[in-house]
Automatic annotation (TrEMBL):
Principal location listed in the UniProt entry: membrane
Protein name in UniProt: 2,3-diketo-L-gulonate TRAP transporter small permease protein YiaM
This protein's UniProt keywords: Cell inner membrane, Cell membrane, Membrane, Transmembrane, Transmembrane helix, Transport
Annotated compartments: Cell inner membrane
Membrane topology: Multi-pass membrane protein
GO molecular function: transmembrane transporter activity
Species of origin: Halalkalicoccus paucihalophilus
GO cellular component: plasma membrane
Residue ranges of domain Tripartite ATP-independent periplasmic transporters DctQ component in the record: 31-162
InterPro entries, sorted: DctQ, TRAP_DctQ
Parts of the chain that traverse the membrane: 18-40, 60-77, 98-122, 142-165
Gene Ontology BP annotations: C4-dicarboxylate transport
Amino acid sequence: MEIDQSLELHRDHLFDKVVLYGTTGLFTFTIVLTTIQVFVRLLNIPTFGFLHWTEPAARFVLIVATYLGAAVAVRNSEHIAIRFLLERLTGWKPRLGLTVQLLGKLIVIGFLLVALWGAILATTSNWTTSIGGIGIVTAGHLYLGIGIGVALMLIYALLDIAIIVRGLVTDRTDDIESGRFEEGTIDE
């Protein structure tokens, strides 16, 4: 099955599919938990303490899913970026554009390394700290999920750096996301 390259879709590897489907599953689980909680409250259904865990569980799952979703966004280059100047630089002088991209990615990687270190410290120091609502889930578990999301973002950012460095070494910009723009000229 061919992928329509005009949509600029990437070929997914097994790792990418696991991250994407896992994230989608967590967001779906959040929606299910929230829907259950809404119906319980709306219909004033007595749960006798049985469904009290759905509200904190939805909150915790949403937090972890957000970080995993951010990893998917980094993988697809859909994160927040100011691309206008970068696209113009890459079109005008590809090496300069790639160098600016590399600098930006290095800053992102520095931030992600600090965030990952913080998540590791928070996970280890809060592993047994109860966060209420659900007895078996601790703050350490929540920070572990956040750390996994940050680690995935870091992996995808490092892969982006490899592509940018390859573009700098070979003077190719056709496989660089921001280097691809077909419309307009510099003088527009």
